[in-house]
Amino acid sequence: MIYGIGNDICDVRRIQASVQRHGERFAARVLGPQELTVWRQRSQRWPQRGIRYLATRFSAKEAFSKAIGLGMRTPMTWRDCEILNHPSGQPYLRLHGALKAWFESRRLRAHVSVSDESDYATSFVVVEQQTVLTAS
């Protein structure tokens, strides 16, 4: 059963301005530990690629917060929600701490899609609630 749907579009230029203004502190506030490692690696090779990565993660976390109906309120936090990639490139969510406990207690499962093109990053998240089957 669908629990919630969220989408978001993010202006990559806004993310770039935040990084220019606040430096790595902005990325460290938005990204979880594994995401931060990937961001640093991508930023070293090609800074614009790092900005796009940060923008897609920002957008996906906004979409996820909408899909679960909390917005950016506890237990939803930027760093407790990571958008990682399988070896195939498919994005997935990894949750931590109180957000993970909240999510699992409701038997939720999330599907995420991210994309970026020139000046915009966009994300779409579908959250399902798994039903408990009872024996008849």
How would you describe the overall organization of this protein?
By secondary structure, the chain is of the alpha+beta class. It has one domain: 4'-phosphopantetheinyl transferase domain (Ribosomal Protein L22, Chain A). The protein contains five helices and five strands; from the N terminus they run βααααββαββ. The protein has helices spanning 12-22, 24-30, 33-45, 47-67, 97-105, and strands at 2-11, 81-85, 91-95, 108-117, 120-129. Strands 1-5-4 form a three-stranded antiparallel sheet. The longest helix is centred in the middle third of the chain and has 21 residues, at 47-67. The two termini are 20 Å apart.
Q: What are the key terms here?
A:
single chain; 136 residues; alpha+beta; Ribosomal Protein L22, Chain A; 3-stranded antiparallel β-sheet; two-stranded antiparallel ribbon
- Low-confidence runs of at least 5 consecutive residues: none
Name the average pLDDT.
95
**The first-level CATH class name:** Alpha Beta
Could you tell me the number of beta strands?
Answer: 5
Strand portion, in percent?
A: 25-35%
Q: Provide the CATH architecture.
A: Alpha-Beta Complex
Q: Order of strands across the biggest sheet?
A: 1-5-4
Characterize the main sheet.
Answer: 3 strands, antiparallel
From the spread of the alpha carbons, the general shape counts as elongated
